[in-house]
Amino acid sequence: MPHKLAMTVAEAVSYSGIGRTKLYDLVKSGSLKPKKLGTRTLILTEELDSYIRSLPDMQSAA
């Protein structure tokens, strides 16, 4: 997938591997702050990348 500035929720799910429900949970908790364009919900690619990078490494999560 080419690097985009923003993506739809469906694109963000495909891009990140995070499920749709979990993605909406992250929005609800404030971990991700989507943008609105009419009825479309857009997730900034940079913000999603940053969130994923902030997750703990597998070794330290145990």
Cα end-to-end separation: 32 Å
Strand content: 15-25%
Give Rg in angstroms.
12 Å
Label the overall shape. globular
Order of helices and strands: EHHEEHH
Number of beta-strand segments? 3
**How would a crystallographer describe the biggest sheet?**
3 strands, antiparallel
The helix content is 40-55%
- Identify the strand order in the major beta sheet: 1-3-2
Features:
4 helices; 62 residues; globular; three-stranded antiparallel sheet; alpha+beta; 3 strands; 18% strand
Please write out the topology.
Blueprint: E1 6-8, H1 9-16, H2 20-29, E2 35-37, E3 40-44, H3 45-54, H4 58-61
Antiparallel strand pairs: 1-3, 2-3
Note down, in words, how this protein is organized.
The chain is globular. The protein is built from four helices and three strands, in the order E-H-H-E-E-H-H. A hairpin with a 2-residue loop joins strand 2 (35-37) and strand 3. The termini are far apart. The chain has a three-stranded antiparallel beta sheet with strand order 1-3-2. It has 62 residues and is α+β, with helices and mostly antiparallel strands. It has helices spanning 9-16, 20-29, 45-54, 58-61; strands at 6-8, 35-37, 40-44. The longest helix is centred in the middle third of the chain and has 10 residues, at 20-29.
